[in-house]
């Protein structure tokens, strides 16, 4: 018979209902729950912790109770605790776990416990009043971030600020390199992030979320594609987490491929352990770059065509760009200053960063660089070229410079009764080089050239509220709001033999978002339950930057850019039921609905050429349900086996649902349907310590994934009958029948304390893209593993295999860390379209990404002299390999051997 509901839980249920209403009114919540009290020391929690290591058991206690458990020494390793089961206070649970050890505990606040050895630990000091002053404190309030990928059901990755510093590379996307199943598309052109997760990329399929804000903007890149861009300064990144596959998170609506979540630096990243106010100074330099030359400066190999023998060039390319600086000659750099202050309840951070680098130089080793091919003919000699691009070994790669300024301001207030408010502002301003991809593909006779520098300005405002009262398991409320204002000014210089023609692609993108979620936890006779539920809303406005008015002459009369706005809201609920300590079932469902309003004018021929005309705004709308479910079995402590299945909707983005050049004739409605990814994943993970040595740690993960995206959206060539029997292909947006990609990934990490290493492997089993009947010309391949003719999919097909080996060691009492990362990127799944046709490699007007397999070796060193001073050094691409990145849309080789040195000082 069911037990009667306790009066306390009747009150808690009432409070939960009030807080659910307050999801729509934060003010109501703040006033309506003002009577919440600080948790009494006697508050009890239900624990069900099997025998495990002391550290792991304490982490579980922190996760259940919300207590912070701090210690400044290594806990006993190898020995297992006694199983802990029952209802008790956090202090009682900690006492049980520490039984038989030489560790004691004391409470230091309503939710804080400090551990101490029975005797004063070496390095700590006792003050005159007899209290213990700890040195570096390790705070445990649950699972360590680095362990989350191995203690959750799914495929995740985590990068700390230290890991990012070690392998940040030259381009922003380099910080994601080495993560299995994750690549950055078009990595060397524009200085932005366009993340590909498990073959899914662009248009919100794999968004980048920074401090809860999304600022992705989509940019037309000519015949050779479109790019979804996100921007951030690497000096401001505190950590990165990647969730692969569909997510139940409120910030993952439409993210059918996965989510990249970044957090900016906080006070803990700046302050010394014993300080409440401080400053952090960072300075760095790099090598392997040259100053940006004048606009229209030519580069690369040239001289293609037929030549009489007496007119054959003696050199196929000028000397410009071949004067690569010496290996240790500083040619670029960055610097930042960050200040922080904190009290018991307040924290504030302010930071400024500047980063400047010229055009980098390609590597010199390997056989992929450009070289001339001379073929004798009856009339002289025909010149063509070999290699992956027109750039020569060691040559300056034009249009790869960056000149960035960034500002950050954050403030946080934490009350004693569970309220937390955080406000933030970040500005990113960059003048950078990029070039329209087709301008490299189509310029062999004259070679690549330096274009105009472009500008991006991004302002991001964030506000986060969190309420989690100590004495109420039914309330864990989070409200997140953000506003991003992005202005992008691209001048894509179009070069002919005689002149440079400016082509302006100016766009403004304003995005507003708000979401609220609450988590309620229940203990029943049938097991533990938790329910997370909430709603979110996003509005995106597209137009032009402030002060700019469109003129048809600005972009060669190709038509105005996209103008209009898009709104989408979603509501979700996700539950977790744990009937036993070894079985967990997690179902969830989301409903989303979008509508877009197209305000774009049309074009008509007037007396003075092309003129604009305005009609009624065009509306698009659609929506649907997205169910998910996960089943997890934990047969042994630290070992979990899981299966995930989902059917997730992605509605057309603003770029896809509004008219614009290359997608639809002006005046016509963009008529497309949402995508639906029916995916599943089966995987296992294992985390344990004390395997071979008392203090070692072993982490393992393996998974099989399968994405099947119905109604996949892409641009491709659609036939249009001009007159009977004659068809013309025009480029526009269509829904394919489906796109699918499946594969496996494996990761293993081992750390002894002094030595550490990891290996990860991602292997694609299958990719396929199929058009609906009648979409393409009959002569085109209707289903292809390498992407469809004239389709964006040609640039999103991943390498069949990627393999990363990471080895390192710590010396001098862990002050010095040295390491090496070796990355292998295999061949594309198939060459070109993959059907063997004559034009399958190029794909028509839109070219398939092209690279050869490559192996890159990086070295790094971190030396922490003391808490005040730290040095980082690295050599990227040690072997100076000339290579093209996977998923490139532009024929721009990656940077050659580059030396980096950085110093961080804290005061």
Structure description:
The chain is mainly β and 907 residues long. It folds into 3 domains: 43-140, Phage tail protein beta-alpha-beta fold, CATH 3.55.50; 150-264, Ferric Hydroxamate Uptake Protein, Chain A, domain 1, CATH 2.170.130; 267-284 and 294-906, TonB-dependent receptor, beta-barrel domain (Maltoporin, Chain A, Beta Barrel). Helices cover 7% and strands 48% of the residues. It contains 8 helices and 52 strands. It has a 22-stranded antiparallel barrel. Strands 9-17-18-13-14 form a 5-stranded mixed sheet. Strand 39 (618-636) and strand 40 (639-650) form a beta hairpin. Helix 3 (54-65) runs antiparallel to helix 4 (90-97). The longest helix is centred in the N-terminal third of the chain and has 15 residues, at 7-21. The termini are far apart. It is found in: Cell outer membrane.
Provide the descriptors you would attach to this structure in a database record.
Maltoporin, Chain A; 3 domains; 52 strands; single chain; Phage tail protein beta-alpha-beta fold; 7% helix; 5-stranded mixed beta sheet; disordered N terminus; 22-stranded antiparallel barrel; Ferric Hydroxamate Uptake Protein, Chain A, domain 1; mainly beta; 907 residues
- The number of distinct β-strands equals 52
CATH class of the largest domain: Mainly Beta
Q: Helix tally?
A: 8
| CATH architecture assignment of the largest domain | Beta Barrel
Outline, from the CA principal axes? globular
Radius of gyration over all CA atoms, rounded? 29 Å
Arithmetic mean pLDDT:
85
Keywords: Cell outer membrane, Ion transport, Iron, Iron transport, Membrane, Receptor, Signal, TonB box, Transmembrane, Transmembrane beta strand, Transport
Pfam family, one: TonB_dep_Rec_b-barrel
Signal peptide: 1-36
Organism: Paenochrobactrum glaciei
């Amino acid at each position: 018979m069911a037990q009667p509901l306790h009066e306390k839980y009747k009150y808690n249920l009432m409070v939960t209902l009030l807080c659910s209403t307050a999801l729509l009114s934060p003010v109501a919540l703040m006033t309506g729950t003002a009577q919440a009290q600080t948790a009494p020391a006697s508050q009890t929690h239900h624990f069900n912790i099997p025998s495990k290591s002391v550290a792991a058991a304490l982490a579980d206690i922190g996760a259940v109770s919300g207590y912070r458990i701090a210690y400044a020494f290594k806990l006993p390793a190898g020995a297992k605790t006694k199983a802990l089961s029952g209802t008790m206070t956090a202090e009682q649970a900690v006492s049980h776990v520490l039984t038989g050890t030489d560790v004691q505990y004391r409470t230091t606040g309503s939710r804080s416990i400090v551990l101490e050895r029975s005797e004063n630990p070496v390095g700590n000091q006792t003050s005159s009043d007899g209290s213990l002053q700890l040195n570096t404190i390790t705070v445990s309030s649950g699972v360590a971030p680095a362990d989350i990928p191995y203690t959750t059901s799914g495929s995740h990755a985590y990068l700390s600020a230290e890991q990012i510093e070690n392998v940040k590379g030259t381009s922003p996307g380099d910080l994601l390199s080495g993560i299995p199943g994750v690549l950055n598309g078009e990595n060397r052109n524009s200085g932005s992030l366009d993340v590909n997760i498990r073959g899914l990329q662009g248009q919100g399929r794999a968004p980048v979320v920074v401090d809860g804000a999304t600022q992705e903007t989509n940019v037309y890149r000519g015949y050779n594609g479109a790019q979804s861009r996100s921007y951030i300064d690497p000096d401001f990144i505190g950590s990165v987490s990647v969730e692969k596959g569909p997510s139940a998170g409120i910030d993952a609506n439409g993210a059918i491929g996965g989510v990249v979540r970044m957090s900016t630096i906080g006070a803990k990243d700046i302050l010394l352990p014993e300080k409440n106010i401080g400053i952090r100074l960072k300075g760095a330099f790099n090598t392997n770059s040259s100053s940006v030359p004048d606009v229209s400066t030519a580069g690369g190999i040239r001289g293609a065509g037929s030549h009489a023998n007496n007119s054959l060039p003696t050199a196929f390319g000028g000397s410009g760009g071949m004067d690569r600086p010496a290996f240790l000659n500083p040619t670029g750099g960055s610097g930042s200053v960050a200040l922080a202050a904190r009290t018991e309840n307040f924290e504030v951070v302010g930071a400024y960063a500047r980063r400047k680098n010229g055009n980098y130089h390609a590597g010199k080793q390997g056989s992929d660089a450009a070289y001339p091919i001379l073929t004798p003919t009856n009339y002289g000699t025909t010149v063509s070229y070999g290699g992956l691009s027109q750039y020569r070994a060691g040559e300056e790669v034009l249009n790869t410079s960056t000149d960035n300024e960034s500002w950050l301001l954050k403030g946080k207030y934490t009350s004693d009764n569970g309220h937390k408010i955080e406000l933030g502002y970040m500005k990113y301003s960059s003048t950078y080089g990029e070039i329209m991809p087709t301008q490299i593909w189509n310029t062999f006779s004259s070679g690549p050239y330096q274009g105009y520098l472009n500008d991006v300005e991004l302002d991001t405002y964030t506000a986060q509220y969190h309420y989690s009262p100590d004495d109420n398991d039914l309330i864990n409320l989070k409200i997140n709001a953000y506003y991003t204002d992005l202005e992008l000014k691209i001048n894509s210089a179009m070069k002919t033999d005689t002149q440079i023609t400016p082509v302006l692609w100016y766009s403004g993108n304003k995005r507003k978002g708000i979401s609220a979620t609450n988590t309620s936890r229940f203990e029943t006779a049938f097991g533990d339950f938790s329910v997370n539920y909430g709603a979110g809303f996003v509005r995106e406005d597209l137009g032009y930057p402030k002060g700019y008015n469109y003129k048809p002459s600005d972009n060669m009369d190709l038509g105005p850019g996209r103008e209009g706005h898009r709104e989408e809201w979603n509501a979700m609920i996700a539950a977790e039921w744990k009937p036993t300590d070894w079985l967990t079932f997690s179902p969830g469902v989301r409903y989303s609905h979008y509508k877009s309003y197209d305000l774009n004018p049309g074009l008509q021929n007037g007396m003075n050429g092309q003129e604009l005309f305005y009609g009624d705004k065009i509306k698009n709308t659609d929506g649907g349900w997205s169910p998910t479910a996960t089943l997890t079995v934990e047969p042994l402590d630290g070992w979990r086996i899981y299966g995930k299945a989902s059917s997730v909707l992605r509605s057309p983005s603003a770029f896809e649902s509004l008219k614009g050049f290359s997608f639809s004739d002006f005046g016509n409605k963009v008529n497309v349907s949402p995508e639906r990814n029916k995916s599943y994943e089966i995987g296992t993970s294992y985390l344990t310590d004390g395997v071979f040595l008392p203090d070692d740690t072993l982490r393992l993960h393996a998974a099989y994934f399968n994405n099947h995206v119905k109604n996949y959206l892409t641009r491709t060539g659609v036939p249009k009958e001009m007159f009977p029997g004659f068809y013309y292909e025009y480029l526009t947006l269509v829904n394919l029948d489906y796109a699918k990609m499946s594969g496996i990934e494996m990761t293993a990490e081992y750390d002894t304390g002094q030595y550490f290493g990891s290996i990860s492997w991602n292997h694609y089993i299958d990719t396929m893209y199929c058009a609906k009947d009648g979409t393409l010309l009959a002569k085109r391949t209707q289903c292809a593993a390498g992407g469809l003719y004239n389709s964006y999919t040609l640039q999103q097909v991943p390498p069949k295999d990627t393999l990363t080996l990471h080895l390192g060691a710590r010396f001098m009492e862990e002050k010095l860390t040295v390491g090496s990362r070796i990355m292998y990127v295999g061949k594309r799944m198939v060459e070109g379209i993959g059907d063997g046709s004559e034009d399958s490699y190029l794909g028509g007007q839109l070219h398939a990404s092209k690279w050869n397999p490559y192996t890159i070796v990086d070295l790094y060193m971190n030396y922490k002299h003391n808490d005040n001073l730290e040095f980082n050094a690295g050599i990227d691409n040690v072997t100076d390999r000339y290579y093209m990145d996977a998923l490139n849309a532009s024929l721009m080789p990656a940077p050659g051997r580059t030396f980096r040195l950085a110093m961080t000082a804290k005061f």
